[in-house]
């Protein structure tokens, strides 16, 4: 299975949109820093704050990745990868911190037959049918 591989004919999204709620005073302070040109916009401020916190906790993240045996980054699963696991009689326990992509050419039956469990801290890209087939196995 390839660690970094683009899906056939498609792009992997580089980011995931999230929504947060901030108190009025906090939001006002962010807007003030943007107005004073410390940051180009609210998003720039929020990304910088998140990166600073991730840097601050980098050792804890590394230890947790090791303890939980998570694969870090982009993990790609295609039909041929799952068919090879099926032929070898293997059941996959997918654990990813980042992005897990299950190709569109993977059928729900093949996913159900080869993926015993899936835990993604980040984002999972798969067809709705595959996600439905794995719904009881997504942790």
Automatic annotation (TrEMBL):
This is Arc/MetJ-type ribon-helix-helix transcriptional regulator. GO terms for biological process: regulation of DNA-templated transcription. InterPro entries: Arc_rbn_hlx_hlx, RHH_8, Ribbon_hlx_hlx. Gene3D superfamilies: Met repressor-like (1.10.1220.10). It comes from Aquabacter spiritensis. Pfam families: RHH_8. SUPFAM superfamilies: Ribbon-helix-helix (SSF47598).
């Amino acid at each position: 299975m390839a660690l970094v591989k683009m899906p056939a004919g498609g792009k992997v999204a580089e980011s995931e949109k999230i929504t947060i709620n901030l108190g009025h005073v906090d939001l006002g302070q962010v807007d003030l820093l943007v107005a004073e040109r410390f940051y180009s916009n609210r998003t720039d401020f929020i990304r910088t704050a998140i990166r600073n916190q991730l840097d601050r906790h980098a050792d804890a993240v590394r230890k947790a990745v090791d303890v939980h045996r998570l694969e870090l980054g982009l993990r790609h699963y295609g039909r041929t990868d799952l068919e090879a696991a099926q032929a070898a009689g293997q059941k996959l326990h997918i654990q990813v911190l980042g992005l897990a992509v299950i190709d569109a050419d993977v059928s729900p039956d093949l996913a159900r037959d080869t993926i015993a469990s899936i835990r993604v801290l980040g984002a999972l890209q798969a067809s709705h049918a595959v996600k439905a087939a794995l719904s009881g196995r997504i942790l």
